Known about the structure:
signal; DUF5067 domain-containing protein; 4-stranded antiparallel β-sheet; single chain; globular; 5-stranded antiparallel β-sheet; 2 domains; Immunoprotect_excell_Ig-like; alpha+beta; Immunoglobulin-like; DUF5067; 196 residues
Amino acid sequence: MYRSLKIGTALSLLLLLVGCGASGAKTTQSHSSSRTSQATKTSHSQRTHSSSSVSSSSQSSQAKTATFANSQFTINHVTYELTGTDVTASATANRNLFVIYYTVTNRQSKAIVPSDLWESSVSAKQDGKKLSTGNLAFTTSQTKDNDLLNNTVMPVKPGKTTKGLAMFEPKNTDPVSVTFSDTHGQVVHTSQYNLN
């Protein structure tokens, strides 16, 4: 009996120790998984904070690379001095063109094509819809405008000036809004033109 009591006590102690060991393992595992979870949350929080600060810095405005003052739009060391506007016949039947005349001066150290820079930074809308450039009608009265249009696709050497024009094809006689943007797409100036 003494022997079975001894074996019973030993088994009870063994079960108690096994139970404590399992509980300790669970506690250790719980602490370990808690630390892992906390580290993951901290890491995620840091990533979220870091990506939001990158996002907010990319959304904040960059230094503008263009200016507009006194009817002069300057971008990339090229100045377009706006000299007038007109409404003239379009090559599209029953449509007109809104024409902006300008004198362009190249202050870069390399040749530029005026229409390339203009089209990448100037756009027009009417009634909230973007306007296309359109085409001049082939009439003798528009020979001068055709010559100016040809100037805009010819390279302008450094330090040189030429006259040109830009066209937009409005859908009706409502006002046209022309937006001038810098190389980052930031709006520098918007002008409103009445077509009447």
